[in-house]
Every structure is written in C-alpha cells, then in structure tokens.
# Entry
Amino acid sequence: MATRILVVDDELLMRVEIVHLLENATDYHVCGSAEDGEEALSLIGKSKPDIILLDLTMPVMDGITMLKKLKDMAHPPKVLVLSCHDEFNLVKEALINGADDYILKNTLNHDNLINSLNKLRSKIQTDNKNLNLENISGDLKKISTIYHEDILKHIINGTIDKNVKLSQYISIDEKNCCCIVFAISHFSDVIRRYQNNDISFLVSSMCTIFENALSDIPAKELFRNKENEFILLLSFSNIDESRKIQDMISEKIEKLSELGKTYLNISIIFGIGSPFHSLSSLDESYRQAINAMIVYFYNPKEEIIFYKDKCYDFCTQEQYNNIANQLFLYCDINGYKSLRNYLSDIPDLCLKYKKLPLLFPEQIKSLYIGIARSIHTNNQTVDKLTIEKINSCETFEALNKLFDSEIFYSFQLDKIEQIDYLSKQTIQFINKNYVNDISVSNIADSLEVSETYLSRIFNKNVGTSIPNYINQYRIGKAKEYLLNTNLKLYEISEKVGFNSLAYFNTTFKKIVGCTPSTFRNKH
# Structure
C-alpha cells in the first residue's frame, strides 16, 4: 500500500522530476499535481493526499497562504516544503504555519526525498490516521500519465522548454503533426440541459465516441484544454501530399461532427491548424487553429475551418485602437442609424472585402461594450448582466441581436447630436418626471405640440416610442435601487413610477430578461 503524494510547484519540470525520483518507490504514489496553492486546495478533496510536497514561491496563491488555509482542515495532510537555499526566512515562516519538514531543491535526489518522506510517513502512522492507500506500479510510463495532459497543455501553449525532448511525452510523430481545436456550439445553452451545469458526462461521452471514431489513427492525442476548448493532435508520417492530408482530416472531422449531432445532440465547431514537421511547432499549429475558428464568429454556417483556406490579416492592438477611435468618432458625427448600418457591415469588411483586418471576437465585444457606454447618459449604466450577455455571444449575429434588443433599444441617446430639439425636450421631461403618472399627452401639452407629431418625431430620431422609452428609463432607475439599496420590490416599484407591482415585474422581465428578484440575487 502506498502513501499518496500531491506535488505543488509552478515549475513543470520540477513536478516531472519528482515523479521520476519516485518511479520505483512502491511506498509512495503521486496522486496529483498543481501549479499553485489555489489549484492544490481544490484538488485535495478529490485526490486525498497524505503528504503534500509544497513550493513556497508560486503565483496566484503562494505556499505560506496555502499552509494557513490548511489549518482550517480537521485532518490536514503532512507538508514537506520544497525550498531554495536563500529562502530560510520563508522556511521558518512555513514551519510556524504548520509545515512538518523541508528539503532544499538543490539537494533533491532520490535518497534525500525518500528519507524526508519516510519521516513524515512515520508521523502519519504514529497519529493512527485511517489511511486510504492504493497500489502503485513502478512503471515510469504509467506514472507519467499523471502529468501527460499537463505536459500537452504546455506544449500547445509554447511554455515548455524547447530543449526538452518532446517525443518522450507525446504519442504523435514529428512529420506532418497538426493541431485541431474544437468547441461545442451554443455552449451556454447546452450546459443548461444538465443538473447544476455538470457536463462531465457529456464531455466523457464525447471523448469516448471520438476516440473510437479515430481508432484507425494510432498517432493522436485528445484532451480538454479549457471549459469549452478541446484539442486533437494528429500526425500523418506516412503521407507526403498536403492535399491528401487535408482530405483525410476533412473526412474524419465531418464524421466527428455527424457523431456529435447524432448521438449527443450537439453541434461542434472545428478549427484546423497547418501540419508541421516538428513537435515544437505544435504551438504555432494551435494558434492557427484558434484563429481559424474566428471565422465561425462572423459566419456560423462554417463549422469546419482550415487555417490555410482562411489566411487573414489579424488585427493588432494598434489597429484595434485606431478602429475603436474612428468608430466612436463616426458615432458622434453620423448618429445612431448610420452607426448601426456600419456595424452590420463589419463581417463583409473583414472577410469579403478585407478592408479591415480580422478583428478577434474579444475585440469586437470590447468595442460594443465601449459603444454602449458611450451612448448612455449619466442617469443609466451598462450593468454587469448586460456585459456578461455581450461576452457570452458566440456569433456576430447574436451580438447584433442583443444590441438591437438591449443596448441601442434601451439606452438613452441624448448624447448623439442628431437628435432634434423636441426629442431632447421630451427626454428631459421624462427624466425629470418619471416618478409621476406621465403620458404622451402630458408631454405634448407641455411642449405645445400634437401627440401624433411628437410621437412620430421621437420615434424617428430616438428609435423607439415614447411609452417604451419611459419604461426603459424607469427600469434603469429600478436597477440602481436594486443594486444599491435594500428597499422592497413594491417600494422600488413606487419610486420609479409604476402603480402596479405586477406590471413592474412584467416590464422589468421584458426589458432585462429576468425578474427584479433574480437580477438582485445575481448581483
């Protein structure tokens, strides 16, 4: 039976070295690894370590902070600190905060490590703890699988030492190796099908189905990189013609796409990077695959995109800043309607005519958030829920629909110079009197014009009717009360001019997309 070890160190090669040092130590089993204290704390419940090998200097959460949090546990694991020769003060602080022993990294070898672990194991036995032990194989390849996925992530992100011999960690060949990235379309809608948004069964099923479908390709790696980002690494060492490689990839990807729709009821987007003749170039193939998937954002009909077929000039930060400045200036000069038409043309300007460099989805969303902020007045804000909705849009089309329904439609437009005098006076009247029972008739009488004329002018210049604007303004004020006060719903309803709580709830849900109670709870 083996004592379970959790290795916590931000250096990948240090984690791998410890696994190698323990490969023949049948008394010890590495049950997991983490890059920082925060990740390690989340793993403890699942991996149930008896001993933690803990680095002290790490990003996100350092070793000292983690030790302090371990004190809150009823039966914390023993801790062996991994330190550098110049960290004596940190080691002293670690021992004060509950560490059991320490070992210097520059003296780390098999014998020293085993001796230190044996001391802690004796402590565990003396404490008469109920140990949950597992047998461990001394086979190096089996132990290395603990870190296999971790290493693959470093390879595709280009964060592994280029001098390391990658072939010992990856099962694909150097020749014609490429990266395919795929993601579940409409992911937020898909996870709502599952209790507590737990899609682990879906992910497991998808990977199993795909593994079986690719069984005739021995040189492959399939793993999950992020919540909705999956990686497939392939190599075609026996094929020389690039066209044949692309045809084979197309055939396989189309099959995977069909399997996803048939057996899992999901659509999948695929981005395919170019083949390279070096494993160290997989990070470039990964970048290409990610960039290829951007095309789907603009054209959702394309679910399988080869980078080599879609070679665009991607937008740099400097270009993005220029585009953003020009767009806000365009908005100020030409007004809402012209701006809306211009935004609709962005896909064609990027993809068809190439008059704009291809903007990344994150850049587009940042632009739209900036536009929303530029057209609201001081009396309303772009709330967090709206920003979350913008960031969750998977396509440009969905982003524009959201803007039409919630941004351009609901935010005040009195900053745009093209709004006429009567419309501005109407907005000022509503802003001042929204708590009262106001109507188009009241406003028209105040401005000494006919209701019909005022309604037509306002709708033309502001883009919505006066009653709609009144409701939108009142709901904007209601959001402020919900976020900044503990007032009851009926009190807020009265303060923003609604005579009926039921009508307030109905109007709020229609404009915001959720009830006032839900909005308050989410924020």
In short: The first strand starts at residue 3 and ends at 8. The CA atoms of residues 326 and 341 lie 15 Å apart. The chain has 22 helices and ten strands. The chain has a mean pLDDT of 84.
